[in-house]
Amino acid sequence: MATVRLVGVDFGSWHDVGQRRFWSGRPPVISDAFEQALRRQIGEGRSSLSLRQLCEACADVTSMRTSIVLVTDGHQQAAMAASDGAAAMEELQLTLGEGPGLDAYGEGQPVLVEDLADEASRWLHFVPAARDLGVEAVFAFPLQLGVVRTGVLSLYGDGAGPLGDGVLGDLSTLADLVTEAVLTMQSGAAPEELGWSFSSAAEHRAVVHQATGMVVVQLDCSAQDAFVRLRARAFALGVEVDEVARLVVERQMRFER
Amino acid sequence: MTAPGDREGWLADTLVSLADTLTAAFDVVEFLSTLAERIVDLLDAAEVGLVLADPRGRLRVMASSTERMRLMDLFEVQTSEGPCLDCFRSGEAVINVDLEHAAAAWPVFTPMALQAGFRTVHALPMRWHDQVIGAANIFHATAASIDDRDRHVAQALVDVATIGILQERAVRRGTDLAEQLQRALNSRIAIEQAKGAVAERAGVDMDTAFGWLRTYARSNNMRLAVVAVAIVERALSIDALRTTPTRLPEQS
Questions:
Q1: How far is B18 from A222, CA to CA, in rounded Å?
Q2: Is A137 part of the contact surface with chain B (CB cutoff 8 Å)?
Q3: Any idea of the CA torsion for A206, A210, A215, A221, to the nearest 10 degrees?
Q4: Which of B48, B160, B169, B211 is the least buried, fewest Cβ under 10 Å from its Cβ?
Q5: pLDDT band at residue A204 under the 50/70/90 scheme
Q6: Which residue of B has its CA nearest to A242?
Q7: How far is CA A46 from CA A29, A49, A197, A241, in A?
Q8: Is A172 in contact with B173 (Cβ distance < 8 A)?
Q9: CATH class of the domain at B7-168
Q10: Which ipTM value was assigned to this complex?
């Protein structure tokens, strides 16, 4: 399973210049509650976190069963991590061939269902079966980077109702972080080399996506493979992936088959 | 092209073209690209960009009047500081800021903007009631100023766009909006990936690549995001894009 390393979080602040207030620094990337839950999972003196632990941290903060399903290129389930009770929900969707997780993956957008009872016609088989297992709300987030799709992060609530304030943003952040971690794993770099930061990992600049598209053509490969090759080159050169991407876009670096 | 003497005619035409992109094959990026071009016309601006906030409140560029890398850099730096971030956080317009005197306010953004050839910057909120979903960023190359009349027209166009986005999927609750914005952000990433693929195959720059993708989507009545995914997944040949513009009547 993926191991990721947490590095410090850099928050911004307002400051005054003359009559006006300005914001500087990054907005908070993840809330204190999530950060603390993640740190509890990591424990003293250790620096890595498995996907299972990440699910446990989500379950801690939200009181919802949490799962992460990874999917291969062929849309087959490749791996799963889950907090207690969430694996059954994934097996259910796999068996029935329908459900919010499958839709989130297929449509490339979050599927946020505050009350499953309202969606009985959307998933004829899944809704009654899920409610039998005590689930009344589902929030599923695709693990996606444009065309690159790697899986789904899903939360299952015992009661109907919306996500708490700010939780939506936290879960979106976590989905991006897991996507990054999965792609990073696939780039073959050792986890301890990755210096994985909450403040930068989840956001790539446009130039990285443009370079990914260029490498797709240069190598005649999938977008996922292209992104992984960019990451691997960055690791090998000891620079940020942004920097490699810029060289590719400026046509100063090519990838050869 | 600036807003011509026939202002009413221009406005009507603009509203129709915005409404037109709201129909069947609605695509947020296409819609906002049209808006960006129209605001350039209206305000005789050098460049216009539209940013939307992701679920974490970070601003992401969704569309701009051109796809020059330097311009994209200017939008990207505003996740940390700049007129769009101030506008988004306060919900208020930032108008007629002379970049010669803005370094104290935005120490990173200001020199980048000056170096890119801009002198004046503005940001208009994409706001409906108490919900701010993003901002329109307007650049002038000169010490220009927007008067109240133009500002109101520009804000009205931005408001129309905001309502269009909020209504697209009959947004009932915050979660619907979140689902849709996340999809839009993802489709923007797919478009960047497709721009790269087209630029590499055809040996053109990113702006040209984007124009080809857009023209193909329009003339085949497809969503831009769908075309982008098809290109990157190699389900659609890049050579098909190249030939499209010459076969079709000019887009209005």
A1: 35
A2: no
A3: 90
A4: B169
A5: confident
A6: B73
A7: 22, 9, 15, 26
A8: no
A9: alpha beta
A10: 0.83
CB A158, CB A136: distance < 8 Å: yes
- Token digits for B54? 């992701």
Contact A12 B173 (CB under 8 A): no
Best of A147, A152, A251 to disrupt the B interface (most B CBs within 10 Å) is A147
d(CA B187, CA B92): 28
Cα of A249 to nearest chain B Cα, Å = 8
**Helical segments of B106-220, H only:** 109-115, 148-167, 174-202, 206-219
Q: Mind listing the pLDDT tens digit for each residue in B56-97?
A: 778 889 999 988 877 888 988 888 899 999 999 999 999 999
Sort out which chain A residues have CB atoms less than 8 A from B195's CB and list them.
210, 213
- Do A136 and A239 belong to one domain? no
pLDDT of residue A11: 37
Q: What's the whole-number mean pLDDT along residues B186-195?
A: 94
* Residue A22: inside a domain: no
B contact test, residue of A107, A210, A222, A255 with most B CBs within 10 A: A210
Does residue A100 have a pLDDT over 90? yes
Our count of domains for chain A comes to 2
Q: Which domain holds residue A41?
A: 3-16+29-190
CATH number belonging to the domain at B186-247, selected among 1.10.10, 3.30.70, 2.60.40, 3.40.1350? 1.10.10
CA atoms of B20 and B24, how far apart (whole Å): 9
The A residues from 54 to 93 touching B (CB cutoff 8 Å) are: none
Q: Give the mean pLDDT of B140-154.
A: 93
Residue of chain B minimizing CA distance to A211: B196
